TrEMBL record:
It comes from the Bacteria. SUPFAM superfamilies: PHP domain-like. It holds the Pfam family DUF3604. This is DUF3604 domain-containing protein.
């Protein structure tokens, strides 16, 4: 029997309705049959997608161009289609809106929407770039011109699946003990970073020192050693993250996690079960937390999440913490990630904005941030909660609201961008904080989140926690003690000590100079290992190739930064690179995130670029026929920079363009840097009266970065 809503409002069908490959071009036909109410003049139809979806926007004016969409009806009314990215309630915000005018639609009339109409030459419309087991095209109807729409129960649902693998990902533990067996995890990834089973055949081998056996996907080190696993697939080579084997277990082992992303419980994609399954089985994480926006989570949502967390957590194998994102407007403190040691703790929301039916009580809401801090102190054991300051759509205003004991962590990067300035804020205020990096992924791929074609600017990060064991208690204590570091995604092996104390330490010394040691082993070649005193760069080591590259024909351009701190931080760098007096033999971008960006056109003297940054860096390497005479010019919508090739060295030239560290540089670069490890020992002078924060930053040749948590020193 037809349900009453369908009888009155109508029903909709989709052709074809089978699985679709992520990011592919398609044509879909939705047929809406009007229900018994009819659609009055001034009524509205909406085809809504979730906030996270990055499927192409429909366009209605160019029949031969991509994403062309047509809307027709058998009824007497006229229809006006338009696209509006904020036409409905979060998370169903992105809408194709159809206004009904100059007449009405009668019961039984049909409206046909052809997405990617190919009849006049359009190649179709691009599907969203990421997988989703149940991708809904939500159809909403307002039959009365009341500006109140209701969802049709027949709204189509289809699966978005991975495409063919184009690359291979290999993941191994960062540390093992001699004699231990270590699993080698291998998967494929398609063009958009969606996972596939490991393609066949993949051959695995060892690249490093020591005696190492690889058999049936398991690695065993017979002696102390370090190196990486190499995967060969057809004519391509892929490498794992670095792995080190020692005779005795280290005091602190390195465990990798994504502590911050969302599912469809709020504004993300997929269920909580799919969320944790992906992180455990496809991203191969050790540690996870779920961070749904508090103002969307009902009490039932919070209860269900806690049950799922309890089901997935397993000490010794997969550590999972319950948590939520306290998501106040920046003026009230901005985003904070709340993580609990165990289930059954209270959710303290910034507001009940999208859940007005959820009752308020002594715990919730907690608004602004100082009230959150106060209520946590009143109702929660402080040993069982830790907060991290986050910059999403809203940025954490830690200058105005901060509690160092409750929230000693700063998230320096996520898919929203890179936020080193949040660390500078902490230094300016004298806070002692640790560094984390996560994804805040909304695409259902925690631990392996890419930007796709949507509004998130960059790949998601990872946090490495230095803990005694893979248990809730040990990992949580590591976060509370700031024994952690963040990366832009690669599992770089970073070490940093001052006078033998590990990152995150805070202690007093009775002298004015201290010894700092640091090392890094990259997933790829390393460009630099830097030591900072506060925000001041005081020491840097680079491979020898950078001091002897005067004859190199490789020129590197780098640009990045953000416009502002807030939601509209993205900077658009679309522009051109021009070479005068030389010719381009080869050009290659690096640190770009989306396949939609990069080189758009190229001649032997010019390169046209599409680039966006949100605090991160994008870059371009150019190999010239000669690089001793002539000039290189970079012109973009943000600014312009030029350099003479005859005087260009590895230090290069740079320019600042305002905003939030908007900048660009041009330098001479080694032809083929290959060193994957750097280290240094350096003495640092301390301030006489103030606390001195020291931290290190490592940068790979491909632009990927790692930041240690600072070590804080006081003179006594």
């Amino acid at each position: 029997m037809t349900d009453l809503v369908t009888h009155r409002l109508g029903h909709v069908s989709l052709t074809p309705d089978g699985p679709v490959v992520a990011g592919s071009m398609n044509e879909w036909t939705l047929t809406y049959t009007v229900g018994s109410y009819g659609i009055d003049e001034g009524g509205t139809l909406k085809l809504a997608r979730r906030f996270a979806s990055d499927g192409a926007h429909p366009q209605f004016d160019e029949p031969t161009a991509p994403n062309y969409t047509t809307v027709t009806t058998t009824g007497e009314a006229k229809l006006r289609p338009r696209y509006d990215p904020k036409a409905h309630v979060r998370p169903w915000m992105k809408c194709l809106v159809i206004d009904v005018y100059d007449g009405c639609l009668a019961p039984g009339d049909t409206v046909t929407i052809t997405l990617g109409d190919r009849s006049q030459g359009s190649p179709g419309i691009r599907a969203q770039s990421f997988i989703e087991s149940a991708h809904e095209l939500r159809f909403l109807v307002d039959p009365t011109n009341a500006c109140l729409v209701e969802r049709l129960p027949s709204s189509p649902v289809l699966a978005i699946i991975s495409g063919a693998p184009l690359s291979v990902v290999v993941i191994v533990p960062t540390q093992v003990v001699v004699g231990e067996q270590a699993q080698i995890f291998v998967k494929g990834e398609d063009r958009w970073g969606n996972p596939t089973p490991a393609p066949d055949p993949v051959e695995l081998s060892w690249d490093g020192d020591g005696e190492v056996q690889i058999n049936a996907g398991v690695l065993r080190c017979a002696t102390s050693c370090s190196g990486r696993v190499v995967a060969r697939w057809h004519d391509q080579t892929f490498v794992s993250n670095p792995i080190t084997a020692t005779q005795t277990p280290p005091q602190h082992r390195k465990y990798w996690g994504d502590l911050h992303a969302q599912s469809d419980a709020t504004v993300g994609t997929g269920t909580e079960v799919e969320y944790f399954e992906f992180g455990r089985d496809w991203a191969h994480l050790d540690v996870m937390c779920h961070q749904g926006n508090d103002f969307q989570m009902t009490d039932e949502d919070w209860r269900r999440l806690n049950e799922v967390v309890r089901r997935f957590h397993q000490d010794g194998r997969f550590v999972v913490f319950p948590g939520y994102e306290w998501s106040a407007n920046t003026a009230a403190g901005g985003d904070r990630n709340v993580m609990y040691l165990e289930e059954g703790m209270p959710i303290m929301r910034s507001s009940h904005w999208q859940i007005p039916g959820t009752p308020e009580d002594q715990h919730t809401p907690a608004h602004p941030a100082d009230v959150l801090f106060s209520k946590l102190r009143e109702h929660v054991d402080l040993d069982k909660v830790v907060l991290a300051a986050h910059c999403g759509g809203r940025y954490a205003d830690i200058r105005e609201y901060f509690d160092e004991e409750l929230g000693p962590l700063i998230e320096v990067m996520s898919c929203w961008g890179v936020f080193e300035w949040l660390l500078w804020d902490a230094f300016d205020k004298g806070y002692e904080v640790g560094v984390v990096a996560n994804s805040d992924g909304h695409k259902g791929r925690p631990g392996a989140e890419g930007p796709g074609a949507g509004q998130f600017g960059i790949f998601g990060g990872l946090t490495c926690m230095l803990a005694e064991s893979l248990t809730r208690a040990a990992v949580f204590n590591a976060l509370k003690q700031r024994r952690c570091y963040g990366t832009t995604g690669p599992r770089m092996d970073l070490n940093f000590e001052v006078e033998g104390r590990v990152m995150g330490s805070s202690f007093a010394v009775d002298r004015d100079r201290v010894q700092v040691t640091a090392s890094v082993v990259g997933v790829g070649p390393i460009e630099s290992l830097q030591l900072f005193r506060g925000r001041e760069l005081i020491h840097e080591v680079r491979p020898a190739a950078f001091t002897n590259c005067g004859a190199s024909r490789r020129i590197r351009l780098v640009w990045g930064g953000a416009r502002i701190r807030g939601r509209g931080r993205r900077a658009t760098w679309d522009g051109v690179v021009e070479i005068e007096g030389a010719h381009i033999e080869r050009a290659q971008v690096f640190a770009f995130d989306s396949p939609m960006d990069g080189i758009q056109a190229q001649t032997d003297t010019t390169i046209e670029l599409r680039s966006r940054t949100t605090g991160d860096l994008d870059g371009l390497d150019i190999w010239l026929d000669q690089a001793q005479r002539g000039r290189v010019v970079f012109r973009s919508g943000v600014g312009e920079l030029a350099a003479m090739l005859g005087t260009l060295d590895a230090n290069g030239q740079s320019a600042s363009f305002g905003g939030l560290d908007l900048r660009a540089s041009i330098c001479r670069y080694p032809e083929s840097p290959s060193e994957r490890a750097l280290e240094f020992t350096h003495e640092v002078e301390l301030a006489a009266s103030a606390t001195t924060p020291l931290f290190v930053k490592a940068v790979q040749v491909d632009g990927h970065t790692a930041w240690s948590s600072p070590i804080y020193l006081r003179r006594c």
